[in-house]
Task: inverse folding
């Protein structure tokens, strides 16, 4: 290996005999080194391939802006998250996550907090990644004495999901959580109440909307839907509003059985709140 660029005494960019670039870390690894010098592999503590990432800044600019201790913690929490989730991450998460973490720490020092409207849904959809994100925030606090804001639970969860090469799933989930939030807004406005996000009925309601798989059961009898419409009139009117919203904004059409199940779920979740 030979040095390509030294960022500080402890972090450098090097190239191996196959012209693959690596970011290496270690105490004094870059001390008094210049481009073309051979690398002493004995002093390398950590290394990862310097793959291109989605970050729209040059690699050198990213690494120069990140403090060595933040890069070190980033590598540590990635290893911790991989172990907790049970899946290996793509190597470019080292740069994207370190860059994000660096900015998040700067934000926390300035007292800025970002909204996280999909935290509850993310927690339910990606429980392993979410728990890993919570533990990552704890690790940052233990190592750097910096308490990241609650919004980082969502952001770090998405980083861990992205690192497993399921980008399409993440984008679909983000779209669905937006749809769900709109549905919940309609229901809350219709009933003039605030839903309890921690309730089991709320969980069933949200997860029901996330289930986009075709129903294997035949469509319900029309008379059964008529009974539900009559018995749970207010809940069914809310479903009609939801159906109009989904049709206008997404071109979706709810089937009779979807309307029936959604009516029952809306009745359950609103009835729980109203009777408390």
Result:
């Amino acid at each position: 290996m030979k040095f390509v660029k030294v960022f500080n005494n402890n972090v450098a960019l090097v190239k191996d005999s196959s012209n693959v670039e690596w970011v290496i870390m270690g105490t004094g690894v870059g001390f008094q080194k210049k481009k073309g010098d051979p690398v002493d592999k004995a002093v390398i503590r950590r290394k990862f391939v310097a793959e291109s990432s989605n970050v729209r800044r040059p690699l050198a600019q990213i690494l120069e802006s990140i403090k060595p201790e933040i890069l070190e913690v980033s590598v540590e929490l990635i290893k911790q998250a991989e172990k907790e989730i049970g899946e290996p991450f793509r190597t470019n998460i080292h740069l994207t996550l370190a860059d994000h973490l660096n900015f998040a720490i700067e934000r926390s020092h300035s007292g800025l907090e970002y909204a996280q409207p999909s935290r509850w849904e993310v927690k339910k959809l990606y429980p392993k990644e979410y728990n890993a994100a919570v533990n990552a925030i704890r690790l940052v606090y233990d190592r750097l004495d910096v308490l990241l804001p609650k919004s980082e639970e969502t952001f770090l969860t998405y980083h861990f999901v992205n690192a497993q090469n399921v980008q399409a799933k993440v984008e679909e989930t983000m779209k669905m959580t937006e749809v769900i939030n709109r549905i919940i807004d309609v229901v809350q406005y219709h009933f003039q109440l605030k839903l309890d996000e921690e309730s089991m009925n709320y969980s069933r309601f949200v997860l029901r909307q996330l289930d986009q798989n075709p129903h294997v059961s035949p469509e319900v009898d029309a008379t059964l839907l008529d009974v539900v419409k009559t018995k749970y009139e207010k809940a069914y009117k809310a479903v009609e509003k939801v159906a109009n919203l989904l049709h206008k904004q997404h071109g979706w059409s709810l089937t009779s059985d979807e309307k029936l199940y959604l009516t029952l779920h809306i009745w359950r979740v609103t009835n729980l709140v109203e009777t408390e």
